[in-house]
Amino acid sequence: MASHFDDLETRDPAEREAALLAALPGFLRKATVAAPGLARWLGDIDPEAVTSRAELARLPVLRKSELMEFQQGDPPFGGFADPAALRGNRVFHSPGPLWEPELGAEVAENTARAFFAAGIRAGDIVHNSFAYHMTPGGFILDAGARALGCTVFPAGAGNTDMQVEAAAALKPSVYCGTPDFLKVILDRAAETGKDLSSFKLALVSGGALFPSLRAEYFSRGIQVFQCYATGEFGVIAYESAAADGSPNPGMILNEKLIVEIVRPGTGDPVAEGEVGEIVAAPASTPAIRWCGSAPATCRRSFPACRPAAGPTPASRAGWAAPTSAPRSRVCSSIRPRSRR
Question: What is the pTM of this model?
Answer without folding.
Answer: 0.86
